[in-house]
Design brief:
Ras-related protein RGP1; binds magnesium ion; 6 strands; nucleotide-binding; 6 helices; lipoprotein; alpha/beta; GTP binding; binds guanosine-5'-diphosphate
Length: 177
């Protein structure tokens, strides 16, 4: 509700990428509906969710795209990246392999997306600190070297999720306007 008859000043497409099971769909559920489900099935069908926010008295519709389980087969298509002005590149802080694959995702993203795309590296599941397999410093260094924003989040506990998306959307707004 509340969106009815509302004038939209901008629509920003943001894509979620990263290995399977890192929490992309739950980050999206948290940001778009403030929901989380423990037993989220592999994403089926749903292409994107939207949430309308206000920056600088402008109404911005964030259209956040989620891979429909395509990440398993490295079959994310160029249509997925087309028109994206932002990307959330997600790994799981408890799964070293998901961080090792970040460089590959970045390469694929840069090969397909607009060169001005705003990218946030996200280390998700920060609530599982006792199982940590990726030191925050490693990710920070990588992000700095590659010119990415970086945050650790927990979709489960709703930590930094809002902040991560709003940082990216605000940066896009500043570049666009
Ligand atoms: P996707 O394949 O990247 O879309 O990952 P999902 O969003 O489907 O999440 C995969 C699994 O990780 C599910 O069992 C989620 O409940 C769980 N999960 C997602 N985010 C978090 C989080 O922040 N903390 C914890 N502890 N589990 C999470
Ligand atoms: Mg998913």
């Amino acid at each position: 509700y509340g969106e009815f008859n509302q004038k939209i000043d901008y629509v920003f497409k943001v894509v979620l990428i990263g290995d399977s099971a890192v929490g992309k769909s739950q980050l999206l559920a948290r940001f778009s509906r403030n929901e989380f489900s423990i037993d989220s099935k592999a994403t089926i069908g749903v292409e994107f969710q939207t949430r309308t926010i206000t920056i600088d008295q402008k109404t911005i519709k964030a259209q956040i795209w989620d891979t429909a389980g395509q990440e398993r087969y490295r079959a994310v298509t160029s249509a997925y990246y087309r028109g994206a002005v932002g990307a959330m590149l997600v790994y799981d802080i408890t799964k070293r392999q998901s961080f090792d694959h970040v460089a590959r995702w970045l390469e694929e993203l840069r090969g397909h997306a607009d060169r001005n795309i705003v990218i946030m590296l996200i280390g998700n599941k920060s609530d599982l600190g006792s199982l940590r397999a990726v030191p925050m410093e490693d990710a920070k260094e990588f992000a700095q070297r590659e010119n990415l924003f970086f945050m650790e989040t927990s979709a489960l506990e709703a930590t930094n999720v809002e902040s991560a998306f709003l940082t990216v959307l605000t940066e896009i707004y500043q570049i666009t306007s």
